[in-house]
Amino acid sequence: MNQPADALDLHGAFHVYDTTLRDGMQQEGLNPTVADKLTIARQLDGLGVGYIEGGWPGANPKDTEFFRRAATELDLQHARLAAFGATRRAGVKAADDPLVAALRDSGAGVVTLVAKSHAGHVEKALRTTLAENLAMVRDTVSHLRAEGQQVFLDAEHFFDGYRLDRAYALEVLRTAYDAGADVIALCDTNGGMLPGWVADVVHDVVQTTGVRVGIHCHNDTGCAVANTLAAVEAGATHVQGCINGYGERTGNADLVNVVANLELKLDRKVLPPGLLAEATRIAHAVAEVTNVPPASRQPYVGVSAFAHKAGLHASAIKIDPDLYQHMDPAGVGNDMRLLVSEMAGRASIELKGKELGFDLSEHPEVVTRVTARVKEMESGGYTFEAADASFELLLIEEVEGRRPSYFDVESWRIISETLTRPYRPGPGEETVTQSTEATVKLRAAGVRYVVTGEGNGPVNALDQALRTAIVQAYPAIAKFELIDFKVRILDQGHGTDAITRVLIETSDGESSWVTVGVGANVIEASWEALVDGLTYGLVRHHVE
Ligand SMILES: CC(=O)SCCNC(=O)CCNC(=O)[C@H](O)C(C)(C)COP(=O)(O)OP(=O)(O)OC[C@H]1O[C@@H](n2cnc3c(N)ncnc32)[C@H](O)[C@@H]1OP(=O)(O)O
Ligand SMILES: CC(=O)C(=O)O
């Protein structure tokens, strides 16, 4: 494993410590492979964090394997790898405890030990004495230090323990520090703290013990990031967290939010220069690996973090984006976006047009018409903020005086059949077979096509028939694929009589676009969105 020996110097006095690969993976539903963990480690290194906690070697074969492979497969430029694990068990020597041995033999230069700092937990969970717990901390830290490893201590349940028995909680910290631990991270393990409480405790610890304080917060009160910042302002110089706020229960402090706030709001340079601008790309790349869709409203790096919907906001942004943004999105590698909806005003339409490559500044009459059509169509159930491609078709129609059109549909028809037939003689033994076929009649490039398509449902059958017909005139369509289909019933009181909205996402293998259709039934709405999806694809591919 190639680790920068000067990681501490590189990051000055401040540590950014990532625990995505350990605490982050304690999140319900996350179960990465070793290869996934190695990929995430590379991404975290690209963000410039100082430490990457890779897991708990010895606790499970996967984490042991991660450290084994990390030794040859990771070439970290910024971070040092840390192995996480517990202090020795009660009543055994640190050198004889197999889990401590796994930490020692992990190849990681840093070991982060979790230890009890709450007197009640020592007695109830460890079922040992307060003195033996101190000995467990002292022995394990000393043993690993003697083996040449740098040791950090995660003081589990510290804030709750401090409330119960301040003297004992502080004694655990001093014991670890005196034995050679470089950092004592105070953990809000149950995540129940608020910023003012964290600040008071951290301030007291810094003043009375002189230990180097770190902070590890869970998000059960929704305050993990705020608690982390409060701790830093009270004297903590080591922050722990997980990318995208992953972690046990409600998660850990979102490390991207923590570092962005430290750098941009508190003027603390905690990452190597320029790397904060990689944050959006990296947060999304990690989400791809974990297969958890990124939260669109995630501060700083979410796709909606700089998305503006209200007309009044857009009109001010047209003059100066700073009027409705707390920072330049480029600072974290994000982009400003304008959303078109019934809340749009003329400025929203003009800015959205510009984003799509249409300069409408000299065409106020077009802006007025588009604004009016958007509001009217949205009141009828359309939504353009989620369907940029349908909006662009509408815009082209108003700018050029005609909607792009590659084929003229004469008619379409669906037949859905359910066959119930016995598959074996005998009463009550039946099987049901469904089949749907669609017939589309249209003219494309001067030729009339009558095509039938089969599918596992009406929309699938229509899609098959439509693309089979027009691919003959426009071969580019062969690459297009329907990748997502969402149906929403709009006036819920009307049951099966309701208005239906369909959003369809189409891909050409490199990019994707979303179109919308609205109708009295799901098939009508889907047809409109399908036609728009293929039409927009042809426009995008510059098909004449
Ligand atoms: C707050 C946190 O998130 S800390 C991180 C927690 N992460 C994990 O638990 C994930 C990995 N854990 C594991 O794979 C397993 O729990 C292991 C391998 C660590 C231990 O497994 P087991 O030996 O089967 O024990 P179990 O899971 O029931 O844990 C309880 C044991 O750990 C001991 N223990 C708990 N906390 C500590 C601690 N801080 N220091 C030392 N021992 C501890 C308990 O005393 C108990 O020991 P005992 O079995 O001798 O009575
Ligand atoms: C160590 C840890 O993850 C916690 O106390 O929350």
Automatic annotation (TrEMBL):
Enzyme class, spelled out: transferase
Enzyme Commission (EC) number: 2.3.3.21
Reaction catalyzed: pyruvate + acetyl-CoA + H2O = (3R)-citramalate + CoA + H(+)
Family matches, as InterPro entries: 2-isopropylmalate_synth_dimer, AIPM/Hcit_synth_CS, Aldolase_TIM, Citramal_synthase, LeuA/HCS_post-cat, LeuA_allosteric_dom_sf, PYR_CT
Gene Ontology annotations of biological process type: isoleucine biosynthetic process; L-leucine biosynthetic process
Alphabetically ordered keywords of this record: Amino-acid biosynthesis, Branched-chain amino acid biosynthesis, Isoleucine biosynthesis, Transferase
Domain Pyruvate carboxyltransferase intervals: 14-276
Annotated metabolic or biological route of this protein: Amino-acid biosynthesis; L-isoleucine biosynthesis; 2-oxobutanoate from pyruvate: step 1/3
Entry's Gene Ontology molecular function annotations: (R)-citramalate synthase activity; 2-isopropylmalate synthase activity
Family indicated by similarity: Belongs to the alpha-IPM synthase/homocitrate synthase family.
Protein name per its UniProtKB record: Citramalate synthase
Species for this entry: Nocardioides immobilis
